[in-house]
Specification:
- By secondary structure, the chain is mainly β.
- It contains 3 helices and 44 strands.
- β30 and β31 form a beta hairpin.
């Protein structure tokens, strides 16, 4: 009976060491498998045959210990080691590695979710982020404003080459210096035409028909006929040439007042009760009088050949003379805003020193939108106030609207100017620029990257970056309790606890390393040592069986 038991005891030694060799073989086979987690085989003793439970100490005996004979070993468990593997940098945007606890969440075609540390992901033909086996990578999506929507997990998508974006400008920041040493703008330039009369010799008024308009020095010759095209080209405002415009007699307007109104718009003169001075184009004592807004940056220069007519008899119908220069200095700047379709909308700003009260300098700015080939659109005027230390205090009129009717974009375009970064010290010169604005033209998604928090950031051809989603990470109370599946996947096990899906780097979840992969955590040196000890144990256990067999044969021979 004892020798037979010894043979079976040796057999248990063969079995457990064989299992350990199988485990080591699997570890070594997966030494280059991405994010593979090695296992170890743990042994424990089988129940023992008790020959005596021992005796307690007495007056006549010191007591005896139990007498037991072990009946071998068995496999307690194969325990997976969840220590992280080293990271390998690949530089590929779809490769992701986790640093710390957690698993990426993927799903199969049937909707079942699995968990993996293998982040070798790529984009499929539909620009969906998938694993090497085509399982969809799960994460958090974004709303139309590209803000992450937490709590709802969905398939992640990176629409390279297909998604276009544009955004209307809402805010524009101005930076720079408005020097308090500038000269106050107290007057605009004044330009006057020759005296004009009607056919009866009466000084012209706003109601005088253009076809009846004549020069006082040549009252017999009408300056215009119906259908004549009057072209304004070459005139300047603040040294900047204004856009060429045309006026057709009888179509655009009929009277001298109509021409004055058109010319005022072409020259970009801002009027209104809040505008200082008396700017505009008026008819005074039979002459056409052009008054610019205050300051040299607004000064208008119109020379004789800047207003021409298609009438061969009077190709240069009006003779202009500069009668008074503009007073006051300032500075001009421009920037590009964008409407809801991404169309560029040029915006010009002209700054002049408006006043210098005891509380600090006050600057006035004039805003306009001047698109090529179109008359400038007057957006309004406002002021920027500074204290006696040159620090910005407040602004008025810094919210303006641009009419986008006919462009197909949302109208109006509402823009707010932020002037808080501008200084009002007595610098050598005034210089202001737009430092930033939040609109941008159309752009196509061209590339993407993944941040440490799992955020997918897309880069568009217009230089703008937007959040496209966020990779989800699942953690478990006992990740060693997960059930291993094929393809580097795990599923929820009875002892793993449910998956807690969250954003990377939150609530105990690890962070994501983009452009890298986690390597296997198998230690080959340890595995080779394990092979030696397991094979030694296997050989020793087989020797027990051989020895027991020899002893049984010897016993049978002696019984003959």
């Amino acid at each position: 009976m004892g020798l037979t038991s010894a043979m079976y005891t040796g057999l248990t030694g063969l079995n457990v060491n064989q299992t350990r060799i199988e485990t080591i073989g699997n570890n070594i086979a997966n030494v280059n498998t991405n994010a593979f987690k090695g296992s170890r085989t743990l042994f424990q003793t089988q129940f023992a045959q008790t020959l005596s439970e021992g005796t307690a100490p007495s007056d006549t005996s010191g007591g005896t210990n139990p007498m037991q004979v072990g009946l071998g070993a068995l496999v307690a468990t194969t325990q997976r080691t969840t220590t992280p593997g080293s990271l390998e940098t690949t530089g590929l945007p779809g490769d992701l590695a986790l640093e710390g606890p957690g698993y990426f969440v993927v799903r199969d075609a049937g909707g079942r979710e699995y968990y993996t540390r293998d982040g070798a992901f790529s984009l499929n033909a539909q620009n969906q982020l998938v694993s090497a086996d085509g399982l969809h990578v799960r994460g958090f999506g974004v709303d139309p404003s590209f803000k992450i929507v937490p709590g709802t997990v969905q398939d992640l998508q990176v629409p390279l080459g297909t998604q276009d974006v544009a955004h209307a400008t809402e805010n524009a920041s101005i930076d720079g210096d408005l020097s308090a040493a500038e000269t106050r703008a107290t007057a605009g330039s004044v330009t006057t035409s020759q005296a004009l009369v009607d056919g009866g010799g009466t000084p012209a008024t706003a109601a005088t028909a253009l076809t009846d308009l004549r020069s006082a020095t040549a009252p017999a010759v009408p300056l215009f006929a119906a259908g004549d095209t009057i072209t304004v080209s070459g005139a300047t405002r603040g040294g900047r040439e204004v856009s060429s415009q045309q006026f057709v007699v009888g179509t655009t307007g009929n009277t001298l007042g109509d021409l004055a109104t058109s010319l005022q718009g072409t020259l970009g003169i801002q009027t209104g009760t809040s505008v200082p001075g008396q700017p505009g184009v008026t008819i005074e004592n039979g002459a056409l009088v052009i008054r610019s807004n205050n300051g040299e940056p607004n000064a208008i220069v119109v020379q004789n050949n800047d207003l021409t007519s298609s009438n061969a008899g009077t190709p240069v119908p009006l003779q202009f003379t500069a009668t008074s220069p503009a007073v006051g200095t300032g500075v001009f700047t421009s920037f590009t805003a964008y409407d809801s379709l991404g169309n560029a909308v040029p915006v010009n700003l002209t700054f002049t020193l408006d006043d210098t009260p005891a509380t600090g300098p006050v600057w006035r700015y004039y805003a306009e939108s001047a698109e090529a080939g179109q008359p400038p659109q007057m957006l309004g005027t406002g002021t920027a106030s500074f204290d006696t230390q040159g620090r910005f205090v407040s602004a008025t009129g810094n919210q303006f609207t641009v009419n986008r009717t006919g462009s197909g974009a949302a109208t109006p375009l509402n823009v707010t100017l932020d002037l808080s970064a501008v200084n009002g010290l007595s610098t050598q010169v005034s210089n202001v620029i737009m430092s930033k604005q939040d609109g941008y033209p159309p752009g196509t998604l061209t590339a993407y990257s993944v941040g440490n928090d799992g955020t997918l950031t897309g880069t568009f051809s217009n230089g703008v970056s937007h959040t496209l989603g966020q990779v989800a990470v699942a953690t478990f109370a006992n990740e060693a309790g997960l059930v291993a599946e094929t393809g580097n996947l795990f599923s929820v096990g009875p002892n793993s606890g449910p998956a807690a899906v969250k954003a990377p780097g939150t609530l105990g979840a690890g962070t994501v390393r983009g452009g890298a992969l986690e390597m296997s955590n198998v230690d080959l040196s340890r595995e080779f040592i394990g092979l030696i000890t397991a094979s030694t144990g296997f050989q020793a256990a087989s020797r027990v069986i051989t020895t027991s067999n020899d002893m049984l044969n010897q016993l049978l021979m002696n019984m003959r």
